[in-house]
Specification:
- It is a single chain.
- Helix content is 42%, strand content 15%.
- The chain folds into 3 domains: 35 residues, no CATH class; 142 residues, Aspartate Aminotransferase, domain 1 (Alpha-Beta Complex); 235 residues, Aspartate Aminotransferase, domain 2 (3-Layer(aba) Sandwich), CATH 3.40.640.10.
- The two termini are 37 Å apart.
- A hairpin with an 8-residue loop joins β1 and β2.
- It is an alpha/beta fold.
- α3 crosses α13, α9 packs parallel to α10 and α14 packs parallel to α16.
- Strands 4, 5, 6, 7, 8, 9, 10, 11 and 16 form a 9-stranded mixed β-sheet that branches. It has a 4-stranded antiparallel β-sheet with strand order 12-13-17-15, with helices on one face.
- The structure holds pyridoxal-5'-phosphate.
Length: 447
């Protein structure tokens, strides 16, 4: 639901007040925001179906592989942390809203090294960082600080569907912009900005949201050239107000090929326009729920005060745990193990997709990292939640994410035939069987 098409519930039914005064409109007990947040998301219904039918092979859920969860490194870090009574006491106490300073300092050092920004002072950078329980709350808080109802955030089409729901829940409008194998297309971003200006909505565009590495759902990374172009476009189009870049780097560490590319944030020389959001969910453990962000000065106050109102600090224990994992050198070897394991699963998925879906006319591109493979089926096949293909796939025992869920309702039109496959949680056997089952469903659809 959109901020523009909200009507107060029951507003058509005036009721007499108890005192016998003139009838008045009965208002919904809920806030507009509650209405914008909507009912149960289609994706939750879809996940519930998996739980109802445990025999289904889910190539849908974007979960990490349970077999590569860091049991050993976590036990080692816990041992270390619990052996130091003073640190343990601190870990069991409330912390600060922005989070543990030693972890922020370690993250600052790592980001400076990864992005080649030796010109930055790690202490100063740590002071611009905030930790949270996973990165999603920070995507929310940053968007909340930027977007009023009916404001616009430009997103790649397709995009991380949770973010699309999040923007809608704030009453904002996510507008989809064309994206290809090199990520969001800067020329299309600029066309959209021009269009919004023509429509008198230029000042409504507050942010551009991008998953810059191996995105969810399409596995795409933004090329070096496009990163520079996006920074330049955000700078040039910041006329009536700043257009912020919201860089979601959730999958940065899950790189299976090629070199790491400096972030968009690192190209924004003074960091005044870009918020960079990272997480340990994909590269270590989603259960520990530690995410973080570097915020531009204009956003730091609003985001941290709202966070203070909400939680006055994310779980301290988890932050100490991750701090220990990094300090003890347990993190990087684990990421290397993950890379090897996921690279192998990606190879298998590509192989079976080529075998079972290739001959049916499907197209895909090999991602260089992440957890997802985006597949486009030939024209005329609808992959949607209510499509016959989706039902046939369920009958064959496999679940996928319909591409339509990943498209903003405005902007680039949703193609009917996209779907997302995840190779995170399924075993190699399940990847093979699941893709074969999907092939059978598509064949029946084409018959
Ligand atoms: C692109 C993207 N960003 C952010 C997140 C949020 O992850 P977390 O809140 O666990 O850090 C996810 C989770 O799937 C994601 O796919």
């Amino acid at each position: 639901m959109n901020a523009t098409d909200i009507e107060t519930e029951d507003s058509a039914e005036p009721t007499a007040s108890a005192s016998g005064e003139a009838p008045c409109a009965r208002r919904s007990p809920l806030s507009l925001r509650a209405a914008w947040a909507g009912g149960e998301a289609p994706i939750s219904r879809l996940m519930a179906r998996t739980l109802d039918r445990p025999e289904l092979i889910s190539l849908a859920a974007g979960f990490v592989d349970p077999n590569t969860l860091p049991v050993g490194p976590t036990l080692a870090a816990l041992k270390r942390l619990t052996a130091d009574e003073e640190r343990l006491r601190a870990a069991l106490q409330y912390g600060t809203t922005i989070g543990l300073s030693s972890l922020r300092r370690q993250l600052a050092e790592r980001l400076i090294a990864a992005d080649g920004r030796d010109d930055l002072d790690p202490d100063e950078l740590a002071g611009r960082m905030v930790l949270s329980a996973g990165s999603n709350p920070l995507l929310f808080l940053i968007s909340d600080a930027l977007l009023d109802p009916s404001d616009i955030v430009l997103c790649a089409a397709p995009s991380y569907f949770v973010y699309l729901g999040l923007a809608g829940g704030l009453g904002a409008r996510a507008v989809g912009v064309e994206s290809d194998d090199d990520g969001i297309v800067p020329e299309a971003v600029e066309d959209e900005l021009r269009r919004r200006n023509r429509l008198g909505e230029g000042s409504r565009v507050k942010a551009i949201y991008v998953t810059s590495y191996y995105d969810n759902p399409a596995g795409r990374s933004i090329s070096a050239r496009r990163r520079d172009q996006l920074i330049e476009i955000a700078r040039r189009w910041s006329r009536e107000q700043t257009i912020f870049l919201l860089e979601d780097a959730a999958y940065r560490e899950l790189r299976y090929e090629g070199d790491d590319e400096p972030s968009l944030w690192s190209r924004d020389s003074d960091g005044s326009r870009t918020a960079y959001v990272g997480t340990f969910s994909k590269s270590f453990s989603p259960g520990i729920r530690v995410g973080w962000a570097v915020l531009p000065p204009q956003l730091f106050g609003p985001v941290t005060s709202q966070k203070g109102h909400m939680d006055f600090g994310s779980p301290t224990f988890n932050q100490y745990l991750v701090d220990t994992v990094l300090r003890e050198g347990l993190y990087d070897p684990h990421v290397e193990t993950l890379r090897q394991s996921y690279r192998g699963k990606l190879d298998v998925m590509i192989e079976v997709v080529a075998e079972h879906l290739g001959p049916l006319g499907a197209r895909w591109s090999r991602p260089r990292g992440g957890l997802y493979l985006w597949v486009e089926l030939p024209e005329g096949i609808d992959t949607g939640l209510n499509s016959s293909l989706f039902q046939r796939a369920l009958d064959e025992g496999v679940l996928y994410i319909p591409g339509e869920l990943c498209y903003p309702s405005e902007g680039v039109q949703r193609p009917a035939g996209g779907l997302r496959l995840c190779f995170g949680i399924p075993s190699i056997r399940q990847i093979c069987d699941g893709v074969a089952a999907l092939g059978r469903a598509i064949k029946r659809e084409q018959a």
